Amino acid sequence: MQTDSKIWKKEEFPPIRDRLKAEGKRIVLCHGVFDLLHYGHIEHLTDAKKQGDVLVVSVTAAKYVNKGPGRPYFSDEQRLAFLASLEMVDYVMLSEAVTVHDIVRYVQPDIYAKGKEYATAEDDLTGNIGSEQEIVEKYGGRIYFTDGQVYSSTKLLNNFFAALPEEVYELAYGLKRKYDGRAMDQLKERIDAFQNLRVLVVGDVIIDQYVFCNVQGVTMKDATLSTRFDYEEDYAGGSLAIARHLANFSDHVTLLSMMGEESDLMALVQEKMQGIHLEILQDEDFVTPVKQRFLRQHPQRQEYAKLFSINHLMRAAEQKSFDYGAFHQRLRDTVADYDLVVVCDYGHGLLDEESLRILEEEAQYLAVNCQTNSSNYGTNIITKYQRADTFCVDERELRLAFGQALTRRTTLLKELMRKLHAKCSWCTIGSEGAIGSTGADKEHCPALLLKVKDTIGAGDAFYALASLCAATGMPLDLATLVANTAGALKTNVVGNKAPVQKVDLMKFLSTVLNV
User: Fold this and answer.
1) N or C: which end of the chain has fewer CB within 10 A?
2) What's the burial of 485, exposed, middle or buried (CB within 10 Å: 0-12/13-18/19+)?
3) Helix, strand, or coil here: 297?
């Protein structure tokens, strides 16, 4: 069968639509990812076609599919061709948007057919069914829910196409058995509960400046790397990034920090942090951390190599002489009012010893992340804290805390929990994933992805979601999966360009657990 004649651009369809309607034909629209065509799709499309005369199918373009990195499994062209080869399908088009709204405007269907699994709005992770119905009815159509058995492309891909790493498949299957197939239901209920949590983020504001360049070679005279400037982007990093992650899950997020009096940097922060209550003290003697990173993109893959970085930071002598009195007072006045205090300690001059003691004494539930980086290696160790209800470290930070290179990670994590009187904790271990501990129990979640764009900020995303999970008492195995999923999503975003969105997290969790 010639399939090319069925594949049209959405902009080309209005004249066809007008002709069909002039002939009295009823147009039915189906929309989806259609990643792996299966019998459930055949039943769905057959039932849909019976509701009218002409069946149009729109396919979500790959870059708008939010089922997690690595999906869809098949390309746009392959999925369009699959559908065009079916006899009951009359027209196929690509939808280059997250929602179907644009397609509906061009097609103006009499019937918009959805699977029966969307008949209950609460079961729709995207939350789009209400707005879809509204726009369909705006153009004179109605929604019809097809009957037939529900199958899942994602489940088939996970089970038979090795779309998930083997360790991830084993983890998902174990959770499915443990929770009697209701792990996703439990996750949805518990993640929805984050919404009402009052969260205070305290930590260093960092402005990340990403300078993208192309490497030309090495200069002839002094063998210096020569690059050609491409473009530059500024991102909200450090505590700003963590607050943005949290604000996609809680409606009550406040950021308490300090900056210098740079008006351009404050304007950037205010632009990036919309929807978050800012308590940022400014002082002319304080230095706002700015980190410039120079990067080149891999010529074949969506990966970025960092060439070098330049950091603008407060010097140790400046920290010693700075008057933190106003910041200490704001901490005392603020901390106790929140259900969860998320500390983001990058060691860049904000949190002195007095600040730590106030946080430890006043916070109802205290989450701590104390990071080791090139500017503070060996001097910003989490053991400077005396209390944390939960914490996240990476393996290097965990080993630095004890000066131990060979002791088992789980042993060190348990000992650090004892020192900080923590209820639960996590250690991220790069390509091996992450381990979580409550002291009595431990969980390992393998890396969900092996192909990444940029690992900067992945630990921050992990920490943000782990803190929410810990503060609400989520079981350790589910909490470790949620946090690791957030970290995985972040690795496919360059820098801190965008925070982890709730709908993306839920869709990726659904993808992972669909075995």
Assistant:
1) N
2) buried
3) strand
Name the strands in the sheet holding 111-115, side by side, starting at the edge strand that comes first in the sequence.
Answer: 91-95, 54-60, 27-32, 111-115, 142-146
- Which of 286-295, 346-355, 501-510 shows the lowest mean pLDDT across its residues? 501-510
Strand partners, 143: 112
Distance CA 101, CA 109 (A): 12
- Residue closest to 349 by CA, chosen among 283, 426, 445, 434: 283
Report the pLDDT value the prediction gives residue 222, as an integer from 0 to 100: 82
Cα–Cα distance for residue pair 492/302, rounded to 1 Å: 9
What is the layout of strands, in order, in the sheet containing 390-394?
A: 277-282, 252-259, 198-203, 340-345, 366-370, 390-394, 424-428, 434-437, 442-445
Phi–psi pair at 486, nearest 5 degrees? -60, -45
Q: Would you give the DSSP letter of residue 500?
A: P
Question: Is the model's pLDDT at 434 over the cut of 50?
Answer: yes
Residue 160: the pLDDT is 36
CB 171 within 8 A of CB 139: no
241-252 b/e (C-beta count within 10 Å ≥ 16 → b): bbbbbbbbbbeb
> Using CB atoms within 10 A of its CB, is residue 81 exposed (0-12), middle (13-18) or buried (19+)?
middle
- Encode pLDDT of 393-410 as tens digits: 999 999 999 999 999 999
Place of tokens 């979601």: 465
**Residue 385 three-state SS:** coil
Neighbours of 167 (CB within 10 A): 15
If one compares 329 and 154, the residue with the highest pLDDT of the two is 329
> Which of 74-78, 185-189, 244-248 is the least confident region?
74-78
52 falls in which pLDDT band (50, 70, 90)? very high
- 207 contacts 236 by C-beta, under 8 angstroms: yes
The torsion defined by the Cα of 262, 328, 248 and 436, in degrees rounded to 10, comes to 120
Provide mean pLDDT across the span 184-198.
95
pLDDT above 60: residue 152: no
Cβ neighbours of residue 237 closer than 8 Å, sequence gap 6 or more? 206, 207, 208, 291, 457, 495, 496
What's the mean pLDDT when you consider all of the chain?
88
Cis status of the peptide bond prior to 72, with omega within 30 of 0:
yes
> Span 142-146, mean pLDDT?
89
CA distance 274 to 366: 25
Which three-class secondary structure string do you get for 246-293? HHCCCCEEEEEEEECCCHHHHHHHHHHCCCCEEEEEECCCCCCCEEEE
**174 Cβ partners below 8 Å, 6+ apart?**
none
